[in-house]
Design a protein that fits this description.
Protein name: Transposable element Tc1 transposase
InterPro entries: RNaseH_sf (IPR036397), Transposase_Tc1-like (IPR002492)
Distance between the termini: 59 Å
Number of helices: 9
Largest sheet: none
Strand content: under 5%
Pfam families: HTH_Tnp_Tc3_2
Structural class: mainly alpha
GO molecular function: DNA binding
Order of helices and strands: HHHHHHHHH
């Protein structure tokens, strides 16, 4: 992968890599090429070791949250109350000035997926062709012919509970 090396420089240094950098720097050898990390990452690790005498990653480092736990719960609750609501509507209802991506991230953390109902059944070109042929073959039928046809809503009926669906008991 051509971009793998460049992306790897942005990830966190593991504890093993930090100890390897400290050991190599203490021995006096150059480390960035051997550890496959940027000079900046190696330099920052060494500075932390010389300044604080520790190699551990600082607790709490990273981006601070823009929402409180209470606002987070309100966002999730609003999404549960109105599952078809948009991110903008949730932001207005909750009254928090945050980006829609933040709302999406909060909902993903709560294992809530977006629900967009189908307007029509997605048909392949082959199924469309078969339906057209079926209709054309019956285009000249009379009312008495159509009264003999039983239509269904194409629902799926399962006698067990596989696929996370509720089973339907057969009357026979």
């Amino acid at each position: 992968m051509p971009g793998k090396r460049a992306r790897r420089h942005f990830s966190q240094l593991s504890e093993f890599e930090r100890l390897l950098i400290i050991g190599m720097k203490t021995a006096g050898s150059s480390t960035a090429g051997q550890v496959d990390r940027s000079e900046c990452a190696v330099r920052d690790c060494w500075k932390q070791w010389t300044r604080e005498d520790t190699h551990a990653r600082k607790i709490g480092s990273g981006v601070t949250r823009k929402t409180t736990r209470r606002e987070y719960r309100r966002i999730v609750r609003q999404a549960l109350v109105d599952p078809t609501g948009t991110r903008s509507a949730i932001r207005v209802d909750v009254g928090v000035a945050i980006f829609p991506q933040t709302i999406s991230r909060h909902l993903a953390e709560a294992n809530l997926k977006s629900k967009c109902p189908f307007r029509v059944l997605p048909l392949t070109s082959e199924l469309r062709q078969l339906r057209l042929q079926w209709c054309q073959a019956r285009s000249m039928w009379k009312v008495t012919d159509w009264q003999k046809v039983v239509f269904s809503d194409e629902s799926r009926f399962v006698l067990g509970t596989e696929n996370n669906r509720t089973g339907v008991e057969a009357p026979w």
